[in-house]
Design a protein that fits this description.
mainly alpha; 18 helices
Length: about 450
Amino acid sequence: MSSRGEFSSRLGFVLAASGSAVGLGNIWGFPTQVASNGGAAFVLMYLILAFLLAYPVLMAELLIGRATKANVVDALGQVARGNTGRWVGGWGIVTVSLILAFYSIVGGWMLAHTIEAIVNLLGFEQVSQWLLAFSLERNLLFCAVFMALTVGIVSGGVVNGIERWSVRLMPTLFVIMLVLFGYVMTQNGAMDGLKVYLLPDFTQLLTPDLLISAMGQAFFSMSLGVGTMLIYGSYVSHSENLPRLGAAVSLVDIGVAVLAGLLIIPAMYVALHNGVQIFAEDGRLLSEDTLIFTVLPSLFATMGVVGGVVACAFFLLMSIAALTSSISMLEVPVSYVVEKHNIARQKTVWLIAAIIFALSCLIIMNFATLFGFVIALTTRYSQPLLGLMLCLFAGWVWRRNEILQELKKGDALAEQSLFWRIWPWYVKFVCPVIIVVMFYRSF
């Protein structure tokens, strides 16, 4: 095993990489997009585009990571043979750090709501109200707690930190989702939501807005472009068949998104049945933060004591989803500093976490100005451009024979595989065009 650390098992890698991909984007973003874009028609296009766009870009990251066995700056520097790659790698580190700065604020909200559900069950009303209030103190405290949990996992390293906790947290996430889905489906109104989710309106199937939204969701839900998958790829053994591992990660990520929709869309219609408003004035389903922090808590409130337990399980689910993504984000700058400056891992983790937490504090203290701005800057603009650069490096700059030799390490017959016949030209021509169109449309 290399001194860098390496995943000890195939399952460990798949669950860690899936955990990175499965974040709040899957559990609140995906159902929201479904609700806003014609229900099942969106689900169908998302499933198609996840494999047409997200999987090839995911494979570019994993291949670059494993071939170079390096942090994101050195990896892209090696592939591009110069400073252009290093600059792009540095840009990726800045982007992922900014994403983690706002993500840890939202993760903190999830933790606060989880504890509030427990406190509410115990009857401590004043504490419950403080936990729900959007105050500076609450936001700072729980952002710090969320960051400390992330630090605790990442400081353990690849096997004893990231892999060990991913193998625990991801199955827990699945179990909570399935139990909640089972419970919601016993409630009045759930079948109406299920029909909206599963029966496509084919008239909307090829509308440009739906296609762009599905493409964006597929791309962002796998946390592509910012180096998290590249780093995890660098911790994979050369003996593994990478295209299969990448497909497994994609399937788990898509599965969680689809399951989240199966849970949340029927839950919204249960809320409607219980007298909770789920539609905005323009007739659209309420979405994103309104859905998570207003519609669903109002639903839980109509369920009595059981509602408290369901609320606790739901926000615990959201906290786990946030945490499995945040550990991969923190690993990107940590791996760079550990390898380039030879500083001990634990010291590095605390140092970088402190810098990112300082950025989070800055956002919290200037919330109205900075929160939306940082999200748009990173996820709408920087992430797709980084994804485009990765496609250009993998498709145009990296020597084709080197890619094939890397694939052959895990599969001697890689040259005859369907993956090798399609992927090189696909990532060279198709993916860049799709990303540019998506980027242009996002304006």
